[in-house]
Amino acid sequence: MAEIGDEPDELCHFTGGRYNAFLEACPTRQLLDELGNKWSCLVLVALSWGPMRHGELRRGLGGVSQKMLTQTLRTLERDGLITRTVTPSVPVRVDYELTPLGADLRAVVQQIKVWAEANMGAVAEARSTYDSAVA
Amino acid sequence: MAEIGDEPDELCHFTGGRYNAFLEACPTRQLLDELGNKWSCLVLVALSWGPMRHGELRRGLGGVSQKMLTQTLRTLERDGLITRTVTPSVPVRVDYELTPLGADLRAVVQQIKVWAEANMGAVAEARSTYDSAVA
DNA sequence: CGGTATCCATTCTGATACTG
DNA sequence: CAGTATCAGAATGGATACCG
Q1: A51 touches chain B (CB under 8 A)
Q2: Whole-angstrom Cα distance, residue A26 to residue A19?
Q3: Nearest residue in B to A111, CA atom
Q4: Beta strand ranges found along B1-135 (DSSP E)
Q5: How far apart are CA B21 and CA B15, in angstroms?
Q6: How far apart are CA A131 and CA B40, in angstroms?
Q7: Among partner residues A24, A26, A36, which is closest to B36 by beta-carbon distance?
Q8: Could you report the per-residue pLDDT of A70-127, keeping only the tens digit for each?
Q9: In the predicted model, what is the mean pLDDT of chain B?
Q10: What's the rounded Cα separation, in Å, for the pair A62 and A65?
Q11: Staple A76 to which of A40, A81, A124, B15, CB 3.0 to 4.6 Å?
Q12: Confidence bin at A133 (pLDDT 50/70/90)
């Protein structure tokens, strides 16, 4: 009988050196949580167009504060998903760019963004139906 | 010149009735936030194997509390991503199942889970490199 | 079994002010 | 321009107890 954890593909069991996000202790959970941060996915997608400065990103991501942007960038850098390049001019210039690993992940998370934008209408409709049924 | 918001594909600008998650006021942000919840993605993927009961999901998702599972399922139901079917037996039986819309999204978020499980090793390595460089 | 209600700790987020 | 520090409020998550 099929159970959760028996995935159709072979990338599944925590045993044997592999990862399985269904298991509580699996470090994969940390990665999933991080992508759940408010800005991580948007930053990755924003960097699709090549290296970008702090200020550019800030203007591109509506509503992000400087603090949260810096924090998000640091975490992504620590995880090897983006690089941070400092040019010691005056004033200093800092560019962020996707690493190959980050570019790979970007392709995946962009699908989420595209899906959300494409299906937001259907979701909004489902919500109003649900809400009126409850009332 | 390319700017954030000028996406390579055509699903981009908020203007003209379309959605763009880069904009603060875009409702797409709500969807992204929801997928960022700790359990939403895992629930969607777990339902890949067909209808599942509350208890089955609870056992399958390591560490989820009853409250959070119920809350997550409610939200997904409200958004039209899953259905909730009550069989009035004693004790009552409740099954959850992906809607076509939810199955569509599941395919996308599963890629995230697969990516995370496949690349967790590289990320962990990057982290330790970063941490030792800081020290 | 599935769900609700309450309380509480932790985390996340953002506004503000300040440094090089 | 990029970043840090601090503080306060909001949101999230979870333990517990109870209901149909």
Answers
A1: no
A2: 6
A3: B108
A4: 52-53, 82-87, 93-98
A5: 12
A6: 20
A7: A36
A8: 999 999 999 999 999 999 998 999 999 999 999 999 999 999 999 999 999 999 999 9
A9: 88
A10: 9
A11: A81
A12: confident
Beta-strand runs (E) in A30-118: 52-53, 82-87, 93-98
pLDDT in tens, B3-14: 565 544 333 334
Return the residue in B112, B114, B129 with the most chain A beta carbons within 10 A, the one to mutate for interface testing.
B112
Q: How confident is the model at residue B4, as a pLDDT?
A: 61
Q: Is the peptide bond before A91 cis (omega within 30 degrees of 0)?
A: yes
Q: Tell me how far apart the alpha carbons of residues A109 and A26 are, in angstroms, rounded to a whole number.
A: 21
Please measure the distance between the N-terminal and C-terminal CA atoms of chain B and give it in whole angstroms: 40
Q: Which residue has the tokens 């009961």?
A: B53
What is the identity of the amino acid at B112? I
Structure tokens at B68: 């959070």
Q: Is A107 exposed, middle or buried (0-12, 13-18, 19+ CB in 10 A)?
A: middle
Q: In the numeric block, which tokens belong to residue A19?
A: 């990862």
**CB proximity list for B94: less than 8 A, separation 6 or greater:** B53, B54, B84, B85, B86, B87
Q: Which residues is A97 bridged to in the sheet?
A: A83
Q: CB of B122 within 8 A of CB of A27?
A: no
Strand blocks (E) in B70-135: 82-87, 93-98
